[in-house]
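We close this part of the discussion by returning to an individual protein. In the encoding step, the backbone of a single protein was reduced to a row of integers, each denoting a local shape. The sequence in question and its structure tokens are set out directly beneath this paragraph.
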Amino acid sequence: MFVLRDILQQAQNDGRAVGHFNIADFVMLKAVFAAAQDLKVPVIVGASEGERKFLGVRQIAALVRGLREEFDFPIFLNADHTHSLAGAVEATKAGFGSVVFDLSALPSDQNIRQTKEAIEVLKGINPVLLIEGQHRSASCLEAWTGEGPSRAAQRGRSVQDPAICGRGN
């Protein structure tokens, strides 16, 4: 049995990355899986809320689980940018191995409080679930200044510059 946390830790120890690819349909899932198999590398498949709505939460979880079990291959599923506890619970119960809990549109204090509450609930469902909290949008610098991340880096600015991203909160 493959455990995402173990795969990520091994990759870090080896100085490697584990690719994460969002999919919008079964063809994309098959392509990502085939490429990972060819390269003999673990892979994380992401499904945003819109992608989960289109594909079906339980359906995509069953497909990924089926690939992992049939081919004995480390493929994992991430509930990418999940904006509600209900959506995170649904994905966790379906068998997703990780959740990006994204309340970045909320003021920081509400985001942190609700994310902590979500962690307790989700870990109660699956104690080995990996949960990433999203704090402010990575694109907030671009929204406020028109600079994308690469341009900001050239100027020596962080894409999470609190002087810019903290506006309004």
